[in-house]
Amino acid sequence: MDGVNARRRKAGVVAVFACILEPLLSKLMPEVPRGHPAYGSITMNLTANVLGLDNAATPLGLKAMADLQSLNPNKTVATNAQILFLVLNTSSVTLVPVTVFLYRAQQGAAAPADIFLPILLATSASSIAGLLVVALVQRLSLLNTVVLGYGALILASLLGTVVYLSTLTAQAVGQISTALGNGVLLALIFGFILVASWRKVAVYDEFIEGAKEGFALSIKLIPYLLAMLMAIALLRASGALDYLLHVIASCVAWFGGDTRFVDAMPTALMKPFSGSGARAMMLETMSHYGVDSFAGRLAAIFQGSTETTFYVLAVYFGAVGIRNGRHALACGLTADIAGISAAILVCYWFYG
User: What's the half-sphere exposure (Cβ side, CA atoms, 13 Å) at 49?
Assistant: First the structure.
């Protein structure tokens, strides 16, 4: 526990999020004792995901999975807490999708951060769906003061945002989204710098230590990454993706619906398998249709609001020796479907 507290003191800004999330997590994971190191690791991982720090989230997630594994009576079967953590990880709300902003900027977008609010709304839908389906399967009671309080605060914030935006024109919504995206990003950057200076943290030394851990982690994950890459290569080479897109477009057209969203679906369908594969699909869509086109924006929203579910399950469970994930995959994919559906609806609302 001392090590966890030491990391929190160094984390600074991140520790604030950890303190906010721990009371909620203790209700959602009742089998994990209060004060257990797993809470610190989980909150750090979820915070890194919220801030869009993908590379930092992986080692924190593996540490959280190892901490939860220490409480697992059957080391090859995932516990309820491990499944909930994985679903929250794969569907985590992304507050600042920095990498998506950067790719849009590189492709020449007029306002790279104007998809900030669409991504926030879509990824929120994914997180809520993931939590609800896990609670349903695990018969987890959400009717307690802490969970209801957190839920009411989050839903009120989202509903307030939606109601306010519904009163604005599309141009005004885009301007607000751009301003918020840029403003939050700048605030976080300056916040990390100021807190690090105030706490007298040796930022460079911490970076070096993190790089060493990252290198060792990369070597450990090579077997699982190779397996995922082979599966992705087979999927793309088989032509199954193109056939599925044709089926989706035909069904939507048959019902008289708008098929523009299908042009961006390669990103959504690839993301559960591979972040790099989905990124390639997103860039290809932006290049072909235009970065500020409907398909280009929707591909970026897909990239920022969904997660690599199969990759996370393979790596996180594989790292601790779990072979039976129980309902983890089904719940994670349910959250992905909710996020993809919400992304399509939000994109039509903002840019349709």
Answer: 28
